[in-house]
Write a structure and sequence with these properties.
The chain has about 220 residues and is of the alpha/beta class. The protein contains nine helices and five strands. The longest helix is centred in the N-terminal third of the chain and has 21 residues.
Length: about 220
């Protein structure tokens, strides 16, 4: 990993927005691919912070500072992503489930999905169950991606799947779940189609699931 990327990752962990902006600009000036900056710098830093929060090693204020620093980095890097030549792969609805107001991973996932040719509708945080389905129907989505960063809000992911099953619409959408407390066992238990530990992995998984369904 390059020095610029390592410094960027640590700046995200430290919640230092000024350092994130500076290191992101230096990485771009060094000719590093914006996708690599997102995946190996900003995303990995955010993953470390998310893990620390889940283990109660940091407080909510520290998590929020890192989130703000991450967003500052995204604002620097996103304009340099070249998406006009990327084939359109599908449509995705993303959001953090009801009761959860964390968006670090969700925001990175959104950026990586856009960079990989997906049209993304970001519903934000604390999203009611029915709103996911309404948004998916409105844009004719292929994927609904559900984020949860707290153990206490995991049930919100299951609620969306249950709602789809009750309304007879479950098979219309690929359901992906992610966030600090999620794992493959949980995804299997609630009947999700896919789980990924990190945003870069989730973006790659989205491509795989889309191709599998269409083939």
């Amino acid at each position: 990993m390059s020095k610029e990327i390592e410094v960027l990752k640590q700046a995200v962990i430290d919640g230092d927005a000024d350092a994130v902006i500076d290191s992101a600009k230096k990485a771009l000036d060094a000719g590093i691919n914006p996708i690599e900056i997102l995946e190996n710098g900003i995303s990995r830093g955010a993953q470390v912070v998310g893990d620390q929060f889940e283990k109660l090693e940091i407080f909510l204020t520290e998590l929020m500072l890192s989130g703000e620093a991450m967003m500052a980095g995204l604002n620097v890097v996103l304009p340099h992503l070249k998406t006009e030549d990327v084939p359109q792969k599908g449509k995705v609805v993303v959001g953090t489930v009801r009761g959860d107001v964390h968006e670090i991973g969700k925001n990175i996932l959104k950026s990586l999905l856009v960079a990989n040719g997906f049209e993304v509708s970001d519903l934000g945080v604390d999203v009611p169950t029915s709103k996911f389905v309404e948004a998916a129907e409105k844009i004719h989505a292929d994927i609904i991606a559900l984020s949860a960063l707290m153990t206490s809000t995991l049930g919100g992911q299951k609620d969306v799947i249950d709602y789809l099953e009750q309304t007879g619409n479950r098979n219309k959408y690929i359901i992906m779940v992610g966030g600090g407390p999620t794992n493959q066992g949980w995804a299997d238990e609630i009947g999700a189609d896919g789980f990924a530990e990190t945003a870069p992995e989730a973006a790659r998984l989205a491509i795989e699931l889309i191709e599998k369904r269409r083939n």
